[in-house]
Design a protein that fits this description.
alpha+beta, 6 helices, 8-stranded mixed beta sheet, disordered N terminus
Length: 187
């Protein structure tokens, strides 16, 4: 039973959590209430080889939640955001295909922790009435959420604990730029 022992190892490492699929945001403690966000755009960080994933609240309230990711991860999210079809499947397309073929529903993505300015995410999947939660990098979770498609949530706890010391300066810089201009200039 190789599959069963593998699942046990993932569960022991904290990478896989099984719970009843009927559990929802209502069942979370007050400090873990979820706020739905959506990807607004991807920005290139001029001085580094990184991208900034700009999340905004789905309910229209003004709140920007930036996440810095690597260039490759940012490009994967941008492809999904722009609904670009690549000649061959990308890794996240492959994961989505596996899920579809195995009748696994990707229900939601939750950015649920922050440690030393690093965010942590969980992908919630369900199959045959059982929900499983899989640990993921936020960039991978967001890329998968855009392809599934499924909602992206951030816990109230993460929103309270995010480091906002440089956020005001970053937002002012963002507002001073022409955000309607193309992000990538063609030559």
């Amino acid at each position: 039973m190789a599959g069963k022992s593998q699942t046990g190892r993932f569960r022991q490492a904290g990478l896989l959590i099984q719970k009843d699929a009927r559990m929802s945001a209502v069942d979370l403690p007050k400090e873990q209430e979820l706020v739905e966000y959506r990807v607004e755009r991807i920005l290139e960080e001029a001085n580094t080889d990184t991208r900034i994933v700009v999340l905004v609240r789905q309910d229209g309230l003004l709140d920007t939640f930036p996440i810095w990711v690597g260039a490759a991860e940012g490009n994967a999210i941008k492809l999904a955001l722009d609904t670009m079809i690549t000649p061959r499947p990308m890794s996240h397309d492959l994961i989505k295909s596996f899920a579809e073929h195995l009748n696994i529903t990707i229900q939601r993505v939750v950015i649920g922790d922050v440690k030393s300015s690093t965010y942590y995410a969980m992908v919630h999947v369900a199959n045959k009435g059982v929900e499983r939660t899989i640990d993921a990098r936020p960039s991978d979770a967001i890329s998968l959420a855009l392809r599934a498609p499924c909602p992206i949530y951030i816990t109230q706890d993460v929103l309270k604990r995010r480091n906002t010391s440089n956020l005001d300066a970053w937002l002012a810089k963002l507002e001073s730029k022409n955000v309607s201009a193309p992000e990538v200039q063609e030559t």
